[in-house]
Amino acid sequence: MPGNVWTLVLLGVGAVLTTIDYIMAFFYTPLVEGAQVSEMINGATVPATRIINGIAVSSQLLYSQKIFYFHVPVAIGSFLIFFFTAYYGVRFLLTKEKRYDTRARIATEVTLMFVILTLITGDIWTRFEWGVWWVWEPRLTTYFIMTLLVIAYFVLRSSIEDEERRATYAAVFGIIAFLDAPISFMITRLIPSSVHPVVLRSGGGLTGPQLVAFLLGLFGMLMVAWVVYQVRLREELAKERIEALKAALEG
Amino acid sequence: MRQFRAILKKDIVMELRTKEMLTSMGLYAVLVLVVYEIALSQAGSSFDILRIAAGLLWLAIIFTSLLGLNRSLVHEKDQGCLDALLLAPVDRPVIFFGKAIGNLIFLSVVEVIVLPLFYFFFLAGKPLGGPLWMLPLPLIVGSIGIAGVGTLLATMSVNTTGKDLILPVLFIPVMFPLLYASVAATSAVLIGDAGYVQVFWQAVTLGAGYDAIMILAAYGLYEFIIGA
Q: Which of A210, A220, B57, B212 has the most CB atoms at less than 10 Å from its CB?
């Protein structure tokens, strides 16, 4: 089947791109603010520091920025895939065709995978950068809420027996959840909090090699996500065919 | 409009006859306040309750509204009223607004009772940071969102096998942005830190924006829910 070949090719390319992203992140991309692990001062090797926004930052901390090449592509990916939950939800509501419901459900499964990966990598970064395992910082909060929304989507599905009703409710909730996630990001970001100042990296932007590594990672991971989605979809379609055949045999 | 009034009137008349929802919601809210007193009993005298008062208030409101939303639609379902409404030549959006406004009214009544109680129990004698007239605004914005989105989600949850267990799972994450904005606005008034007016208006505006988007979505999607 040509479809299979394409899936394999995409999986291969996606895996290669993601791997290159890793390798580039560690061996090729320059550190932010030109940081180094150690530097020579008066002939002695000392841990390097850089002054950022008037604060001396240990270069070791700047190393944690490397997780950026994994974390940000995954985070962007999770939002893009979540879009398909809402998109297929709308398609389902308009047509009432079961195949759109199946697609929406699988898109949500892939979203859950990506959201959890985002949460874990974000948390590792938080631990290293701010020294605590959890901060209610806008991005972390948003992804936590998104995880809960995606879990709620599956809880809702599993508690409805009637097939058409399940599909309809899931589609409606998928759309609501997709609208809710960006709003929660906006609101936690825009309302100043007195307890935790929002830590944002100021300016800079990505330099050439950094951007290349980042984009490779982004496209690689999106390809992997697409493949996971396709494989799951095919599995579900096969399952549905088996069920239909079984019903035909018994009937 | 007549249809809308009929649905609203039905809910209010039923409530006036049974007084079931208001008593259970009101009592529940008072119980939540008692639990607060237990939670805060060992906090010591240096603890400034004003700092978390807005959060406590909204916690009471959100849990009480969960109870009310469930009740308001369980009635409809158990007594076959929802099916009858669907059979009647009523526009589907009218059902949504009828139920949502009904829920908003009940929630407001409970808030009117709970807010003074909350003040006397926990904040008595403490000076408010901002003027009193600012306080109802986030309450109104928050309650509209709770009633609007809550009506949609409660209509879904009463038709599941989990019933009232499902509603919080759906409701709280979806409500998160609005709750965050409401707590921020209420806190701004209660505490009155420097620049609180700006934070207040920002939070109220964002909350109102959430209301507009989500209620529009809920209004558009209600037809599918109620038809399934």
A: B57
